[in-house]
Specification:
By secondary structure, the protein is mainly α. Helix content is about 80%, strand content about 0%. The chain is built from 3 helices and no strands. Helix 1 packs across helix 2. The longest helix has about 55 residues.
Length: about 110
């Protein structure tokens, strides 16, 4: 186990893990950016808030089944990256819409659907 200040050997598993996590962060951030800047408004306007909030749980179930059916690294990598991107780019902003101060009629409609 490497500690702070220890040198790693080039080509070691530490380097491979760091590379994997770097790629994971890039993919997740790129997908999050695209979902939040390009897709979010269109999804909410076309599908509505209820369907938008159901995207993440549906994807979670789908990717879980896929991961159990095909448990290889690339499937898990893509699954977790897409799920994190959906959380940041679609699900969290949709939840925040529910807490925006609006008229009492809108609050009641949002609360009871």
């Amino acid at each position: 186990v490497g500690g702070v200040g220890e040198m790693t050997v080039p080509g070691s598993s530490d380097d491979a893990f760091a590379s994997l996590m770097g790629h994971f962060g890039q993919v997740t951030n790129l997908l999050s950016f695209l979902l939040s800047s390009v897709s979010f408004t269109a999804i909410v306007q076309r599908a509505g808030l209820r369907c938008t909030l159901l995207i993440f749980p549906t994807a979670l179930i789908t990717f879980t089944v896929l991961a159990f059916a095909r448990p290889v690294l690339w499937v898990l990598f893509i699954s977790v990256a897409v799920l994190k991107a959906l959380t940041y780019g679609i699900h969290e902003p949709a939840k925040e819409i529910l807490y925006i101060p609006t008229s009492p009629e809108a609050k009641i409609r949002a609360k009871f659907w």
